[in-house]
Design brief:
heterodimer; A: 323 residues; mainly alpha; globular; B: 430 residues; D-Maltodextrin-Binding Protein, domain 2; 15 strands; Multiple sugar transport system permease protein (chain A); sugar transport (chain A); transport (chain A); MetI-like (chain A)
Chain lengths: 323, 430
């Protein structure tokens, strides 16, 4: 790897084998001509993204940090006052908050293995050369390009008591099964949302897995075939280790995405019935906008931020490259 | 290369200045974008309601033609994002001159300093009381119409079940209602004979269900000073209401979550009695005709109650030319204008003079009964800046109770949250 020059650096022309290295390389080994200019344009290229990130991510995040310790409201003629940790003590005594934590944990613990596993299976299925493979790739990927709000609206109808899913259940079972009002019962609402979420997002992670699969050298498979491995052994000892980096990426992205569950909830259940589907982000939006309590919403967001940070750090640690 | 570098730098600098400028805007003082010019901006929520929008546009056009000092410019938003748009505009100091507002939100916006007290040439005492939004003794907004909740059924169904038709003189009592539902259910024609619109969300929840609570004798908040909900929203009467409400679902009289469109379900004969607004009357009448009966809501103890106040108009404090804005509002409140909007929306016109111009609402007209409901039963949602918060808490408590949460503790929780909110806002005093 180290011998390959980075594509952005022009290769120094190879003048002659016997000749001494070019004079400029001696005293100023790191400063090739044009280095300054390159650095300049490098910064220039970072600038648009950096400015946008700064303006719309970092500054609001820092402001949010500050607001969490005040009594700021969305609509209010009163001046903002510093109230210390009032918002946090209120938050940590709010049963709805703990319910939201529990719901998000439930969602994440189910979503992460199931969705990544399903996506891997799908990727393995379409990582073959056969006629029409692109058709299946497209079909699996279609839900991803559909907006989550649209998907939620459609599934909202399918989940109704007299909706498509219950009709199918009833027909398949010759009228024996009468499905529940999926989103109306505290026991079935979260599982219903989990199924829909997996259906919508699995295609995205399938593509990531697929990229990982195609990065594994074919020679390794050939070698393993010569050794007479079974298909399972091939997967276990060639494919799985070869997906190491992809695995970490999929794990981290699904986890963060799952922790931020919001769209489906906002469209389909509004946190109900009886808080069985409320989430941290939903609670933040509800207090921040509908209840106009900007400071409380900031406190929720801050706690959420810390949680995501901890979870990501733990994952990073667990998936680090062990020497 | 140099040229490119310059370009890149220029773009970055432009981006930085733009960001700085955007940040600067937020701190700028409130000023109307129309200031200085003779154009006055008017924002309305009814982008998704072409009939109402056209009626408003027509008033604006005729006002613009009637004088040449100012020009009103209509900007319509979808209802779902309207409130957010106004709040963001207020935060950025970019409020238009004239806005329409959902009645119960008026005190909140007035308290926040978004609105100016009205100074109109029109005599507001002639308006239906629920079409004038007052706070702190001053009128801040006025509407062209109101809507009224009612119960609708087919006369033939009631007759088949042996249930009398409720009237203004003699509404159903709680016992009669229970009896009626039992009899209707026994007919076996419907899975759920009653449809209270339980699939509704947002403002529908307090709008539709707090009148039941008030009819029991409870309320959303103690209206004496609006400082606490203790004893009103979690008192014995409120618990009685909660038990009754949950009982309707528990006894199989209504679904915990009704269909998306209650009126359509009723017309398709999926329910016997619906609880809906006057806006559904025209459609129901066209489909069912003479068989349709419009009845007052149930008297649960202190007489039937319905929610008052719909969309209304106000002038913002950021308006540079509020005299002209007030002049426009006065103009728009002329009977023919009020009648035109009420006709387009199928709503109850705000004045008698306007009602006289609409056959359905004139004396003896088919929809006159809604106007009577509005006059007799309308209870304003609490006129306090705390209302938006109270509404969300009440809505959530109602849904939880419907789904089987323990009434007393659920209501206690809502009261605790409401009281804490009022306290943290210094009592919402001026």
């Amino acid at each position: 790897m180290a011998t390959v020059p980075l594509p952005t650096r022009p290769r120094v022309p190879d003048t002659s084998k016997a000749a001494p290295p070019p004079s400029y390389a001696k005293g100023n080994a790191r400063r090739r001509p044009g280095f300054r200019r390159e650095q300049f344009s490098g910064w220039g290229m970072i600038a648009p993204a950096a400015v946008l990130l700064l303006a719309f991510v970092f500054i609001p995040a820092i402001l949010g940090f500050g607001l969490a310790f005040t009594n700021a409201r969305l609509i209010s003629p009163r001046p903002i006052e510093f109230v210390g940790t009032d918002n946090f003590s209120r938050l940590f005594t709010d049963p709805t908050f703990y319910r939201a934590l529990l719901n998000v944990a439930y969602f994440t613990v189910v979503i992460v293995p199931v969705q990544s596993g399903l996506a891997l299976v799908m990727a393995l299925l379409i990582n073959k050369k056969f006629r029409g493979v692109n058709f299946f790739r497209t079909v699996y990927f279609l839900p991803v390009v559909t907006s989550m709000v649209v998907v939620s609206l459609l599934w909202l109808f399918m989940y109704r008591k007299d909706g498509l899913i219950n009709e199918i259940l009833s027909n398949v079972s010759f009228g024996l099964i009468h499905g529940p009002d999926w989103l109306g019962e505290p026991n079935t609402a979260m599982p219903a949302i989990i199924i829909l979420s997996i259906w919508q997002a699995a295609g995205f992670h399938m593509i990531i897995w697929l990229a990982g699969l195609q990065g594994i050298s074919g020679e390794l498979y050939e070698a393993s075939q010569l050794d007479g491995t079974s298909r399972w052994q091939q997967f276990r000892y060639v494919t799985w280790p070869g997906l190491f980096h992809t695995r970490s990426l999929v794990l981290v992205t699904i986890t963060i995405q799952a922790l931020g569950l919001f769209d489906q909830i906002s469209v389909m259940t509004q946190g109900g019935p009886m808080d069985s589907t409320t989430t941290i982000v939903y609670e933040a939006v509800r207090s921040g906008y509908r209840q106009q309590e900007t400071s409380y919403a900031s406190a929720i967001s801050l706690v959420f931020f810390v949680l995501v940070l901890i979870v990501s750090a733990v994952q990073r640690h667990l998936t680090r490259e062990k020497d | 290369m140099n040229k490119m570098l310059t370009k890149v730098l220029a773009t970055s600098i432009a981006a930085v200045t733009l960001t700085a400028a955007l940040a600067g805007c937020g701190k700028g003082s409130a000023s109307s974008p129309a200031e200085g010019s003779n154009e006055i901006a008017l924002w309305t929520h009814n982008a998704g309601n072409p009939d109402e929008l056209a009626a408003v546009q027509k008033i604006v056009d005729s006002y613009n033609a009637s004088q040449d000092k100012v020009k009103i410019k209509v900007q319509a938003f979808p209802q779902d994002s309207y409130n957010d748009s106004v709040v963001s505009a207020a935060a950025a100091g970019k409020l238009p001159c004239i806005v329409d507002i959902d009645g119960p939100n008026v005190p909140n916006w007035a308290w926040a300093g978004y609105l100016k007290p009205l100074e109109l040439d029109t005599d507001l005492s002639k308006q239906l009381p629920s079409t004038v939004a007052k706070w702190d003794g001053k009128a801040y907004a006025v509407g062209y119409y109101d809507v009224a909740l009612a119960m609708m059924a087919r006369a033939s169904d009631l007759k088949a079940a042996g249930v009398r038709v409720a009237t203004i003189e003699q509404p159903w009592t709680k016992e009669e209602f229970q009896d009626a539902l039992t009899k209707l259910k026994a007919l076996g024609k419907w899975d759920y004979p009653l449809d209270l619109g339980t699939a509704g969300t947002g403002e529908w929840l307090p709008y539709a269900y707090s009148p039941f609570l008030q009819s029991f004798g409870g309320d959303l908040v103690n209206r004496d000073g609006f400082q606490s909900a203790e004893g009103k929203l979690n008192g014995d009467k409120a618990v009685e209401w909660a038990n009754w409400f949950h009982g309707l679902a528990d006894q199989g009289f209504m679904a915990k979550k009704s269909g998306k469109d209650s009126t359509q379900d009723f017309l398709n004969n999926k329910s016997a009695i619906i609880y809906t607004g006057s806006w559904a009357a025209d459609k129901a009448k066209a489909a069912i005709g003479e068989d349709l009966v419009v009845m007052p809501p149930v008297d649960l103890g202190t007489g039937p109650k319905i929610g008052g106040a719909s969309w209304q108009w106000g002038v913002t404090s950021a308006c540079g030319n509020s005299e002209a804005a007030m002049d426009y509002l006065s103009y728009s409140l002329k009977p023919e204008n009020v009648a035109a909007v009420a006709k387009a929306t199928g709503a109850i016109p705000a004045t008698e003079e306007a009602a006289a111009q609409i056959p359905a609402f004139a004396q003896g007209g088919a929809d006159r009964i809604f106007m009577d409901f509005s006059r007799k039963y309308a209870v304003m949602r609490p006129e306090t800046p705390a209302y938006p918060f109270i509404a969300t808490e009440f809505g959530k408590a109602t849904q939880d109770i419907l789904n089987g949460a323990e009434p007393k503790s659920t209501l206690d929780k809502a009261v605790k949250a409401i009281d804490a909110n009022i306290k943290s806002n210094g009592g919402y005093k001026k």
